[in-house]
Amino acid sequence: MSYQPSSVLVTGGCGFIGSNFINSIFQKWPTARFVNIDKLTYEIRETNLAAKVRQSNRYKFIKGTIRDIDLLLNLLKDYQIDTIIHFAAMTHVDKSYADRIGTIEENVMSMTTLLEAATFRYNGIKRFIHIST
Fold this sequence. Notes:
Layout: E1 7-11, H1 16-25, E2 33-38, H2 51-54, E3 59-63, H3 69-78, E4 83-86, H4 93-98, H5 100-120, E5 127-130
Parallel strand pairs: 1-2, 1-4, 2-3, 4-5
Helix pairs in contact: 3-5
């Protein structure tokens, strides 16, 4: 793996796919700092991440929403993020059927806010990877 980021923002990093990604890539990018932002909904827990990741000084957890552009901009600037890996989404099928409009609004506006922050208001992003279900 030739790409070596210095500071990675992972959205939804406590969910099933996001936490497995962080657990897997953490040692492959040994100098990278990981900032994980997650709302911790639907029984999602930070303990989905390995203890060695959670206890590392290269890992920071932020409980929050990516719809908060001020929070995003602060994270991007404060941690000098150069890579974003976007997993965050409302994916619970039963909830999406019960609130179709709310689910679409949450997912689309979250992505829009993240793109706004990463492309128009901050200049340090080298890679933006969007994972979608």
